[in-house]
């Protein structure tokens, strides 16, 4: 196994639980469109881009809309999401993640973001974590949604490292699949039953040191 020189963190569900805000905002929009939207639907949209998430809802409801209406709906959903996620503060960082990021920095291991969200920079700023990141790749930079590995490949390239040297942390199945497709070692964050294909699945970073995490690989 190659030496790990960087960690690439997904945002939603790994650094902060904004998935609940995405859920409320998508559910609201889906209801307006007369499409039922469950927690299970939300689960399958984790890591999926805004446009692909809308397409999922439209397909579920058998709706066909013109491009301008789709843009309007996405803007509306995002405004609602921002209303909710805009209140994020440093205390919303998930347990243990800030300590791990600081430990990585102290050890000289690079820290990168690999998120599908176009709001990633705003969220990291609100968490007071933006300066800790050596590079950010988010929904504004990529053309292909997870499970395509583009987001992680761009991160590795920006760091000048091989995928095998960058450990990905992901809470979404689409993100674990993306990491595997790109040749990245990956640790799942969540429930063992819900995630497949990761080197290990942990329920979070609470009380986990870098050595603990390396021991999982
Ligand atoms: P936005 P991640 C993803 O972020 C979310 O998991 C997903 O639910 C969301 O639709 C997507 O970002 C796009 O977000 O509308 O803010 O651009 O998990 O890849 O960090
Ligand atoms: Mg996520």
Q: What can you see in these coordinates?
A:
- It is a single chain.
- The chain has 217 residues and is an alpha/beta fold.
- The protein folds into two domains: 6-17 and 90-214, Rossmann fold, CATH 3.40.50.1000; 19-85, Orthogonal Bundle (DNA polymerase, domain 1), CATH 1.10.150.
- It contains nine helices and six strands.
- The chain has helices at residues 19-32, 39-45, 50-61, 67-85, 97-107, 120-126, 150-159, 173-182, 210-214; strands at residues 6-9, 110-114, 135-137, 166-170, 186-189, 200-202.
- A six-stranded parallel sheet has the order 3-2-1-4-5-6.
- Helix 8 links the parallel strand 4 and strand 5.
- Helix 1 crosses helix 4.
- The longest helix is centred in the middle third of the chain and has 19 residues, at 67-85.
- It is globular, with a radius of gyration of 17 Å.
- 1,6-di-O-phosphono-beta-D-glucopyranose is lined by residues 10-13, 22, 45-50, 53, 78, 115-119, 139, 172.
What's the structural blueprint in terms of helices and strands?
Layout: E1 6-9, H1 19-32, H2 39-45, H3 50-61, H4 67-85, H5 97-107, E2 110-114, H6 120-126, E3 135-137, H7 150-159, E4 166-170, H8 173-182, E5 186-189, E6 200-202, H9 210-214
Parallel strand pairs: 1-2, 1-4, 2-3, 4-5, 5-6
């Amino acid at each position: 196994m190659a030496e790990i020189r960087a960690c690439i963190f997904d945002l939603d569900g790994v650094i902060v639980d904004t998935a609940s805000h995405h859920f409320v905002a998508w559910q609201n929009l889906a209801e307006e469109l007369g499409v039922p939207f469950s927690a299970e639907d939300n689960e399958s949209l984790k890591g999926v881009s805004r446009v692909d998430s809308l397409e999922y809802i439209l397909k579920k409801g058998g709706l066909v809309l013109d491009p301008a209406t789709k843009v309007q709906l996405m803007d509306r959903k995002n405004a609602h999401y921002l209303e909710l996620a805009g209140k994020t503060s440093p205390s919303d960082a998930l347990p243990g993640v800030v300590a791990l990021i600081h430990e990585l920095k102290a050890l000289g291991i690079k820290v990168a973001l690999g998120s599908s969200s176009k709001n990633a920079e705003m969220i990291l700023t609100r968490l007071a974590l933006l300066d800790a990141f050596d590079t950010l790749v988010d929904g504004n930079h990529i053309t292909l949604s997870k499970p395509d590995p583009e987001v992680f490949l761009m991160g590795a390239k920006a760091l000048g490292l091989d995928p095998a040297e960058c450990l990905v942390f992901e809470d979404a199945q689409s993100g674990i699949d993306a990491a595997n497709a790109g040749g990245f070692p990956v640790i799942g964050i969540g429930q063992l039953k819900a995630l497949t294909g990761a080197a290990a699945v942990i329920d979070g970073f609470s009380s986990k040191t870098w050595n603990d995490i390396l021991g999982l690989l």
